[in-house]
Amino acid sequence: MRNFRDNLALYALMAVCFAVFCYMGWRYVDVEFLALTNGDAMPQFLQLQKMSQGLITLNIKQFFAFEFYNYGFFYYVLNLLAALPFIITDNYPLQIYAPRVLNALFSIANLWLLYKIARMYLSACNALLLVGVFVAMAGFWHLGYVFKPDVFQAFFVLACAYYLLRDNFSFGKHYTLAWIALGLGIGLAKFQAILFIPMMYAYICLPALSMQAGQILLALKRCALGTLGVVALWIASNPYLLHKSGFNAWLSMFEGNMNSNATNHGAYTQVSLGDKLAMIDFYYFEMVVFIVLLVLCCYLLWLGLVRVFRDLALGEIHKQTIGQNKDSSKDYYASAVSRDDDKKMDSRIFTQNAEILQSSNSTNATRRQDLGDKNGALQGESRAHTLAYVTADSPQQNKGYRSPLGDVSLESPFLAPKQAKRCGRELAGFFRKPMPKPKKPQSLIPFAPLAVGFFISLAYLLFFVNKAWEAYYFSTMALGCVLYIPLALACAKAFMKTSKGGGGQHNAKRSTRYQTAVLSLLLALQILGGFMSSAYKQVFTKYPISLDSAHALAQELTDLVRPFITDPNATIFSDNVNFYYLSLGLKPTQIYQIFGLPNADGFVYEQWSKKPHSLPFIPKDFIILSQNWWLESYKKRSHSDTDTQAVLEKLFSGAYPYKQVAKSAHFIIFANTDEQHSNITKPKE
Q: What keywords would UniProt list here (predicted)?
């Protein structure tokens, strides 16, 4: 109950965000204009229709034919379960709305996880400010309720980061949970999460910078085992991969995605670096805030590579034995204490005083009290000595082999004296007073692997993906928010050095105030930039285009195609699927949208049959093309796209089994003449 009261502000923020998402998701649930909304709303809607039909008819091929195989199968199952009651009752609005509510829950779960990470290092108020920076991103509202797995993927990436910070280079249970979280992100959410595997590799290899053969071999072993575990989780959560047809379908989708990334989704246009940075500035971080993040990332990389290499390889932390158990771990820490004469002397004093106190307890109560006062001061020294080196999670995690990096502090990367800590606990038990909890960890080195994950995923998206799609960047930017924690810590430390000294409690309060100032400045810049760039206005707008023009085009297309729809089983293949097809007696599952540029495999049986397929060919009875796209816009880029040029020439010349039957100011209609592969007996001319 007390924990709930302490986090009441967070829960209130989560409730407000969820309510806004629910409102935004309900604004447009018109299935005939679903393609105008954010994301791949129409294709995702159709995938659930197909999977539900396969589930009802017990057709396993159809159930696994959700086409977007780069998304996790389990993600689709969750959304199917949310929408299934409304699919059975043919309630189109709620079929659309249910997955949006589910994805809104994933979004607020990200807020909770980010807050949980921040509370390991910051006060409750400052942790809430960091969450506010995340909420202030326009992309959070833009993608927070959309039927796409990017928000779901971000949850697992943040969970992986959380467990790495909890583990703090002890390679215990939290290290294993970090691998599991990342594996689930790849298998359950989206294959793109594989971009963050280098974060795990960096975490593993950082202790190996000592350049000792044993450490390097141990790091390679951990990398191999972790990778195998991720592959196993990916296969287990996507069982269709075990079948040859299923794996071929995934491979085909993967190759298609790589080609899409290279050609800007079939548009064959080059997206500049400036366009991608402008997208980041619009949807995620203001450019000043983003530059600060990049500088911080470089600093953390230097901290992880240069400083740790210096401390490990040059002897500030000595050799360790590989594969130590609990007993050998104790011997290691005892030898580490013996390296330093002062620490050795302190440890002996603690042990001797503990024995004296125990002896005096049985003989003289008064003498015990006197000695207790004397040794209480020594106990305070032990506590202070321990607090300087031991992190908040080390007492619970130090149960076996522990890397020395787990005890690297912001001030000094020395090893924690475990023997002194043990004596301190004995003295505390003697006086019946519990050992006070150590301060929250202040080390910046555990953030270095997170910086590696952020940097590599960002570099890949900026330089190797020819797209400026904001959804691709969501997980990377969510991880970037975590990196503002060391920014607040480092800035507060720098400010403390320039200010006058004071008591310990006074210094702690001042440090917290400095952190608050840094995070408040970031939040103010985010909000100000969002209003100045009109990002908030755009993401909260119901439709990205004028509905008046959309309804006019829909009416024109409906009137143009109405005379030819004589069979309720007819299918339509078009780049514009926003028209009144329900009034024609057609269902959404009979409308197929063209993405990018047309491919003959999608509507010509002879072309489709040249490649192996796990599902039967679906004839397209009518092809509807928008003139402003296929004729006017295409002429400007036809020189760089010979394949599409050949497809359009064959379609217009009659080389394919289609003939032009109607034309208006904005649309051209082609009817299928292949009676053998058609859903209707004969197209009406």
A: Glycosyltransferase, Transferase
Q: Chunked in runs of 10, what are the mean pLDDT values of the chain (685 residues)?
A: 77 95 90 82 90 89 85 94 94 94 95 96 94 95 91 96 94 96 96 95 87 85 96 94 88 87 79 94 94 94 77 49 43 41 44 46 45 44 39 39 44 39 41 43 83 96 93 96 94 80 67 92 93 87 75 92 91 90 92 77 84 80 83 53 75 89 92 86 51
Q: Which residue has the tokens 């401390």?
A: 311
Tally Cβ neighbours within 10 Å of residue 159: 22
pLDDT given for residue 510 in this prediction: 84
C-alpha distances (whole Å) from 428 to each of 127, 431, 623 are: 32, 5, 81
Which residue's structure tokens are 């402003």?
628
What are the tokens at 652? 């217009």
Q: What residue has token string 């002429």? A: 635
Q: Are 623 and 670 in contact (CB under 8 A)?
A: yes
DSSP-based three-state secondary structure for 305:
helix
Beta strand spans in 35-184 (E): none
Overall residue count recorded for the chain in this entry: 685
Query: Are 225 and 43 spatial neighbours (Cβ–Cβ below 8 Å)?
Result: no
Nearest to 174 by CA among 397, 363, 343, 414: 397
Q: Are 178 and 54 in contact (CB under 8 A)?
A: no
How far are the Cα atoms of 6, 165, 223, 443, 446 from residue 407, in angstroms, in the given order?
A: 29, 12, 22, 8, 10
Query: C-alpha distances in angstroms, 680 versus 472, 586, 587?
Result: 41, 13, 15
Q: Say how far apart CA 207 and CA 214 lie, in whole Å.
A: 11
622 bridge partner residues: 572, 671
Beta bridge partners of 668: 625, 663
527 touches 136 (CB < 8 A) = yes
The residues, ordered by sequence, that sit 6+ positions from 103 with a Cβ below 8 Å of its Cβ are 144, 145, 146, 147, 148, 151, 152
